[in-house]
Amino acid sequence: MTAAVALATLGAAAPFAAASPPTPQQAQPAPRPKPIKAKIVNAQSSGNNTELIVAVDAGHPVQTGWRGQLVDASGQPVAGGAFTVHTVRKRQVVGTVVGLSPQAVIKTTAVLSPP
C-alpha cells in the first residue's frame, strides 16, 4: 500500500492537496462624472436647427453622446433646449437644438451630463 492510499484510508487529507486559488477583487466601476455647467460661446442657425458651441476646460470628461440642457439665468431649463453632444474638441463641445434662435441660445448656459 502506498503512503497516499494509506493516508486516504485513514481519513487524512492527501499531503499535496491543491489549495483553492484566491478570488480576485472585483474592480469598482469608475465614479459617474458630475454634470458640467458651461458657457455658450457661439450659436449659428441652419434652417430650424441651431448649432451651439459650448466652452469647456481642457481635460474635460465630456464625450460624444453626452446630454445637454440649456438653462436660463435662474437655472431653469429652457423649453426646447435639450440636445446631445455630437462633436468633442479639446476646449469645446458642439450640439444642435431645434426651434430656438441663435439669439435665444447665446443668452443661456448649458448643463452637460453623461448619458
Describe the structure.
This protein has one domain: Translation factors (Elongation Factor Tu (Ef-tu), domain 3, Beta Barrel). 10% of the residues lie in helices and 41% in strands. It is built from 2 helices and 6 strands; from the N terminus they run αβββββαβ. Strand 4 and strand 5 form a beta hairpin. The mean pLDDT is 87.
Secondary structure topology:
Layout: H1 3-9, E1 36-46, E2 49-55, E3 67-71, E4 77-88, E5 92-98, H2 102-106, E6 109-113
In short:
The chain has 2 helices and 6 strands.
List keywords for this structure.
single chain; 115 residues; mainly beta; Elongation Factor Tu (Ef-tu), domain 3; 6-stranded antiparallel β-barrel; 41% strand
- The H-and-E topology, N to C, reads as HEEEEEHE
Q: Return the structural class.
A: mainly beta
Q: The CATH topology is what?
A: Elongation Factor Tu (Ef-tu), domain 3
Quantity of strands, as a count:
6
The portion of residues forming beta strands comes to: 35-45%
Secondary structure: helix percent: 10-25%
State the strand order across the main sheet: 1-2-5-4-3-6
| Shape estimate | elongated
Oligomer: single chain
CATH class: Mainly Beta
What is the arithmetic mean of pLDDT? 87
Radius of gyration: 29 Å
Q: Give the number of domains.
A: 1
- Terminal Cα span: 68 Å
CATH superfamily: Translation factors
Instruction: Identify the CATH architecture.
Output: Beta Barrel
Number of helices: 2
